[in-house]
Amino acid sequence: MAAGTGACGMRFDSGRVCLDLVATGAHSTDQLSHPDRLREWLVRSGLVPGEAALDAVDDEWLHRFTEVRAYVTELAHAELTGRPAARALRHINALAATPPPGVGAVRAADGTWRRTLSDAPACAPLLAAVARDTVDLLTDPAARALLRECEADNCRRLYLDTSRGRRRRWCSSEVCGNRERVARHRRRATTSKDPQTRTPLPPQTRTSPPPPLPPQTQAPTQT
Question: How confident is the model at residue 1 (pLDDT cuts 50, 70, 90)?
Fold first, then answer.
């Protein structure tokens, strides 16, 4: 799986290929807005080797991948909320029945092994690979139990929480986590500077001085 990137670019750190596809639509701007962007995603997600020709990718490919993205998103949210998503499940199951791309191993010029596709990349087999990854996620109890949605404002990314203790709150501590920490710091700083938001101190109560002690009476001297 490709490594994650910064806040503005595509990220591949959700833990599953199908969730990495969902992540491209979890922002205010669609990251699959053009066939060129889909080509980039296919290579960086690892579905297609970098040297594979993707000239066939067009608007129809883009439409079909964004449609599958919507189905995967619906299924993942349905799992988190405990509600059914029968229509999305039917579509994913139908796509998963299609054979995925055939793969093979080749020796590169430098002597290393590389993965290659047995045929030119085609849309249906690549969609099948995403659909099968979705099925694997839904039918694996251990993986399914790790499914989370980012708690940061304005982020809808889904991810698998593999952190120690399973207490990860954000899709990325460096991106959303850092943004939330900065926002909290700013809110605290603003609150401390605004006199109207300060908690008033309780009024001081003036205590009366203690009454004077009565004069001591000298005991009579016995003669």
Answer: very low
- 180, pLDDT greater than 80: no
Closest by CA to 123, choosing from 53, 67, 65, is 65
Q: Closest Cα to residue 49, out of 7, 99, 101?
A: 101
Q: Over 90: is that where the pLDDT of 84 sits?
A: yes
As a dihedral over the C-alpha atoms of residue 148, residue 153, residue 155, residue 160, rounded to 10 degrees, the angle is -20
Whether 41 and 10 have beta carbons less than 8 Å apart is answered as yes
CB 116 within 8 A of CB 108: no
In Å, how far are 65, 166, 189 from 181, measured between CA atoms? 34, 20, 12
Q: Which residues contact 124 (CB under 8 A, 6 or more apart)?
A: 95, 98
pLDDT for residue 202: 60
What is the reported pLDDT for 28? 81
